[in-house]
Amino acid sequence: MAPALLSVRNLTVAFDTRRGPFDAVRDVSFDVGAGQTLGVVGESGSGKSVTAMALMQLLPDTATLTSGTIAFAGPSGSRNLAALGEREMQKVRGREIAMVFQDPMASLNPILTVGHQIMEPLRLQMGLAKAAARARAEELLALVRIPSPGDILRAYPHELSGGMRQRVMIAIALSCGPKLLIADEPTTALDVTTQAQILELLRDLQERLHMSVLLITHDLGVVAEFADDVMVMYAGRTVERSPVQALFDKPGHPYTEGLLNSMPPLEDEDPEVLQAIEGNVASPFALPPGCAFHPRCPYAFDACRQALPPFAALGEGHEAACLRVPC
Amino acid sequence: MLIRVDNLAKHYPIAGGFFGHRTVGAVRAVDGVSFSIDRGETLALVGESGCGKSTTGRLLTRLIEPTAGTVRFDNMEISEMDAGELRAARRRMQLVFQDAGSSFNPRMTVGALIAEPMHLAGASAADCKARVQELLPLVGLAAEHTDRYPHEFSGGQRQRIGIARALALRPDFVVCDEPVSALDVSVQAQVINLLTRLQREFGLTYLFISHDLRVVRHVADRVAVMYLGRIVEIADKATLYKAPQHPYTRALLSAVPAHRPGAVRKKTEVVGEIASARAVPSGCRYHTRCPYVMPICRTEEPELTELGATHSSACHLVQTSH
Ligand SMILES: Nc1ncnc2c1ncn2[C@@H]1O[C@H](COP(=O)(O)OP(=O)(O)OP(=O)(O)O)[C@@H](O)[C@H]1O
Ligand SMILES: Nc1ncnc2c1ncn2[C@@H]1O[C@H](COP(=O)(O)OP(=O)(O)OP(=O)(O)O)[C@@H](O)[C@H]1O
Ligand SMILES: [Mg+2]
Ligand SMILES: [Mg+2]
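Predict the joint structure of the above. Result:
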């Protein structure tokens, strides 16, 4: 693997809610190689977005990063982002690490034009003059395949379709040429052709600027095509880490296997009822003991209910936290 | 037939001039679409980002007024309904929003959000509460989630709240706008299985808007393909996936990501700039990107023409060969 640009170790994030505290992210560790893409997949609610927000220090007030280090090898040497103060972090955000949020409507300001919102970081972070910022903003919109970019600069977010908003967010994230792009479901609102074009654009930027991407997505097709490595999350924890090919060939964790089997076929016989993993995700307030997946696991045996399974190696860079994996 | 749409259009004015007081053009978000949906049927609506799918869904549920055209719901013209009739009709048709998170009032608990449509329809507090407890497990959420606020949920969990809310009043017709795109594939499978089960049990009718052509292949009876505000092809599912006729439909199908890494996928056939609803090309709207463009395509807009009992396409190429 390429030398890591980002190395996260034992990240734990706790929420303090009216119902009491709970850990949304538990002891998560991963690397993102320079110029590489790490795909993050997992159960809805498993802590993917919270992990991303923790990296950017954009957690809500009710959340705290209770442990872990985030080593980022930026232009000015390696630093532990978890220990940076807000002033320093502001310099990292946007310029060195940029993020595309999962909910574009919630992250765009409804009362400001799209143009204003794209031009602001260009002017503040990159120091461009107004005219230059406008020209660059139009260029960026064209880059993410938005038609009539001049008109769209004058439009308000509610005047755009879901996919257009998502691409505006991508344009803003790319505007300062970050070393690491954290993209939380960046193509969910895009049709397959636009999605293919956006992914090609990202791949191109990745090669030219040596940008790394942390790609959170539910779309296993996108992971298959775009990621180098994959991390699978379940109930706040990493359950599997793997190079992309190996994950699809030989999933090590039963949850991963269940996910891969849930994908509707494109060419084969269409089943009457889609395969889904039985049962529901555990409540974070009442996690089952041992492996959190055991109540839904078709292979669970007694030991799975006792203690947290350690990671076991399946191959080069491939490991899963499951007792069934032969050590 | 539960829904019948004729020549439906929605244009938004584009403000221009120094003070933005002058109208300098129009966004032709939806530009003359006609289709019908049978009771108990699922019609899927697919197409490029910005082609007018959500706008069509909003027009059907009367969240916005059309610029032209008509929508008939259960044999009644929606625009001719009086306030009482419209209220009754609205109760029978619901919309699952594309951007579920931002459509919620952040100050309402999940229980209140799901109960809101029932509450507005005059249901008692006890009935609302009972129904919420019934709906939560149906969409894969726990009963204990009732008292939490929307921001405390992940994107996929919020989407399921939106689905529960839409189902609260036991509607006949549901517009599902990207209902499962925020869900992991396993929860997605659960929600789709739920939607199809409800359809079987209660004869629900769906307009299913989705980018995921795998999901569409599973849920739809018929599929309509939209391009820049128009339907360019509509067919029963088997025909559309096996023998697509419109060049845009074929391009769309070729762009579905492969199942496995390294699998060779046909190179994306879609080329060229995405056209804009703010400057619709003359003739066939797809001519600027079509690899088979002929002179007539630049000047004349092709009509949606029947190719078979359940298959129509709007393409000069197809029409000349038939
Ligand atoms: N502000 C908050 N307050 C309390 N709990 C929260 C908050 N934000 C998230 N959570 C909880 O933290 C857990 C992880 O949420 P997160 O948004 O990271 O999930 P996710 O993996 O991104 O899911 P999805 O795929 O649905 O987007 C969930 O149980 C969620 O309900
Ligand atoms: N309130 C509005 N004012 C002006 N233009 C609008 C408004 N709402 C939508 N539009 C425009 O109408 C067109 C169609 O938008 P719509 O949301 O229906 O697209 P969509 O097919 O749902 O796309 P997506 O797949 O990205 O969600 C777009 O060009 C959009 O910019
Ligand atoms: Mg998320
Ligand atoms: Mg839409």
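The mean pLDDT of chain A is 91.
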